[in-house]
Write a structure and sequence with these properties.
The protein is of the alpha+beta class. It folds into two domains: 4-211, PmbA/TldD fold (2-Layer Sandwich), CATH 3.30.2290; 221-451, no CATH class. It has ten helices and 17 strands. The protein has helices at 4-15, 73-87, 115-118, 122-138, 198-211, 229-243, 246-250, 310-316, 347-352, 405-409; strands at residues 22-38, 41-59, 62-68, 142-158, 163-178, 183-190, 221-227, 271-273, 295-299, 302-303, 338-340, 356-370, 375-388, 391-395, 399-404, 412-423, 435-451. A hairpin with a 2-residue loop joins β2 and β3. α4 packs parallel to α5. It comes from candidate division WOR_3 bacterium SM23_60. It holds the Pfam family PmbA_TldD_3rd. GO terms for molecular function: metallopeptidase activity.
Length: 454
Amino acid sequence: MIGKTEIKQITDRAMKYTKADQVMVSIFNQNQALTRFANNHIHQNVNESNSLFSVSVAFGKRIGHASTNSLDSHRIRETVTWADQIARFQKENENFHGFPEVKKTAYRPVATFNRTTARFSHAARARTVGEIVDCAKHHSLTAFGSVSNGVAEICIANSQGTRAYAVCDDVFCNIVMAGEDSTGYVQTGRRDVNDIDFGSLAELAAQKAIMSARPVRLPAGKYTAIFEPLAASEFFDYLGNYVFNGKTYEEGRSFVSGKLGKAIVDKRISIIDDPFAPNGFAFPFDFEGVPKKKLVLVDKGVAKHVVYDSLTAAGAGTKTTGHALGFPNPFGPVPVHLTVRKGSKTYKQLIRETKRGLLVTRFHYTNVIDPHQVTFTGMTRDGTFLIEDGTITKGVLNLRFTENIIGCLNRLADMSTQCDLVADEPGYGSRFASGTVCPAVKINDFNFTGTTEF
């Protein structure tokens, strides 16, 4: 890590390299490591250190942007020069009213760093994998997956006096347990590695693989379906991306365009973007340096708010809600701290009260095919089960589905009383932990459109 003092020196120096009317710079500095395993053996152990310097300059309303992964002063000066040159060839952006001006006292203290997680070594990850593999061998299964952890240092500064800085870390694990004709899956992520019981996770994945052995084929059709939090989170994530995105809303492309203040889903559903939730990945500011705040998106089924960054807010004649993903961002602002209020039934009750239906562990390869109506398609994977007379009886070959998310949430049977943090996979980009806190969700008449061979 660079440290707050040195990062401030870099950003202050970079802003002096331009004569633009306004300038904003950001530094994303990270260290992350990953141990991947397959066929009950570790086959990859990697460590990455990288930095990203980004700069946006504004000459009036002409904005230029450039970035580099070098923090060398010569390279930073060159990158700022590129941004200057790009800006001079841009059309004026009428929505640009200046970079956000934030006072230092506006930021709320948030715990984003855990020293134990930051020190989680390659040897510790290997011991964790050993625990997972031992579980697989005990059940005559084969384990696949990864364990990774990382630390990120983030600094946003602009010529308006905004200075935002934070250090955050996380650990992530995913496990596939495979039998001859079945698989089971779990994934988790936390700030504190001590909050994860890797042995219990491995056992859960193993039991899913064992329970789904010798899966049966079910015909396509509409079924009562219970979606565990890992699957259920995708309903809400897509709503965040396409429905409560201020850009799609203002352009009339969102389902709630013209519908704020009206009921859109079952009254038992409330969705809040809460960047301070103790069971989520708390973080104090967005990627324009604007302080985050709790924002109710859906209150008892009624659409209440959408989220904005500085550009979409200016175009709408309102204020940013602190949801910028970066600058510029053609996709628009997105809530990344979604929490869904719990339901009234325990997970076991949801199953016990199902006469005939399906239990879905997770989705695979989902895509939105109608962003305005929020219709999506995909498949089940790694643990799909038949429920008969309130009991899980057998595994089911995976099913393809095409469904409308708004329609599903209006056919809500109930939700579980327990909410879990579903951590997003770190992927191959910058290390920034995010996730959705949600319950298991039971939907009536979920539309499964086809079957698979596995």
